[in-house]
Specification:
This protein is mainly β and 288 residues long. It is built from 1 helix and 18 strands. It has a 9-stranded mixed sheet with strand order 12-16-9-8-18-17-11-14-13, with no helix packed on it. Strands 4-3-6-7 form a 4-stranded antiparallel sheet, with no helix packed on it.
């Protein structure tokens, strides 16, 4: 048999149940409000933006010329927008191609070899490339840059007209050791022999002045661009273009009046091996 609560006990029970029914939704709303106040949604991921200076896909392998594939037209000559140290920003007019342009390559010819100094996407017509510093104590170096378009089938079009860019050396090291500031009088005797594509040269430097030379630097220029110094002796040898420099070592830095030092080098040539016309010691011309 089920008993029914009556009287004061029943009233208290009903009141407690009614209060619980009112408090529970309020607590739930308070908890929900607390969660909303301290929880933040993650920021929306931005849509990727194509880089104005890069290519999202690599340039296709360049294919040999084919009659079935017409290569792109030549882009416009690159225009220099900005030069900051060795970084150069360029802009060029686009090429056209029925198959679509896959990429643009900024190129230059350096020391007889062609280099790709920057690759950009097929819709990019402006970007930055980084060039090498001028070597050693060379104050500046001129680069001839041009642009080539490659289509989606790997056909490379003709090169654009080239643009000259001069990169300046940020640090020019002084010669070491420093030559004597006084101009000197000197004489050189040159003995050179050649074979096939090689050569051997011996140079005797005589101080004909009345004072000693303390620290010397001999310079001359090869008449033919194919002449190169490979290695040498009794001096520190270097070459930039056709200009050759020999700097004294510690043990032969001083040339007394009427005394001589003999230095030499081995080198190569491309068929012509003419002798340099003039030699200079510390900036003063030497007689032969």
């Amino acid at each position: 048999m089920t008993r029914t609560r009556t009287g004061t006990g029943a009233w208290i029970t009903a009141a407690l149940l009614a209060g619980a029914a009112i408090i529970a939704p309020a607590a739930a709303r308070a908890t929900a409000g607390s969660t909303a106040a301290y929880t933040t949604s993650p920021p929306a991921t931005p849509s990727p933006t194509p880089s104005p200076t890069g290519s999202p896909t690599p340039c296709p392998a360049i294919q040999p010329p084919s009659g079935q594939n017409t290569p792109p037209t030549a882009p416009g000559a690159p225009e220099i927008i900005q030069v900051v140290m060795t970084q150069v920003r360029l802009r060029w007019a686009p090429a056209t191609d029925a198959d679509g342009i896959a990429c643009y390559q900024v190129r230059e010819v350096r020391n007889g070899a062609e280099y790709v100094v920057g690759t950009f996407g097929g819709t990019v017509t402006e970007g930055s490339v980084t060039l090498p510093w001028p070597p050693g104590s060379t104050r500046s170096e001129v680069h001839q840059l041009y642009v080539v378009a490659v289509d989606t089938k790997g056909a490379a079009g003709p090169a654009s007209a080239s643009t000259s860019v001069t990169v300046y050396n940020d640090v020019v090291y002084p010669p070491s050791p420093s030559p004597s500031p006084a101009r000197v009088t000197c004489r050189v005797a040159v003995d050179s022999s050649s074979w096939w594509s090689g050569m051997s040269t011996s140079i005797t430097i005589t101080n004909t002045a009345e004072t000693a030379v303390s620290g010397w630097r001999l310079t001359f220029a090869f008449p033919d661009p194919g002449q190169k110094v490979s290695n040498g002796w009794s001096a520190t040898w270097s070459q930039s273009g056709t200009q050759v420099t020999a700097v004294n070592l510690d043990w032969n830095k001083t040339i007394a009046p009427g005394r001589s030092v003999t230095i030499g080098f081995l080198g190569s040539h491309t068929g012509a091996n003419p002798s340099p016309a003039t030699y200079s010691l510390n900036g003063a011309s030497c007689v032969r």
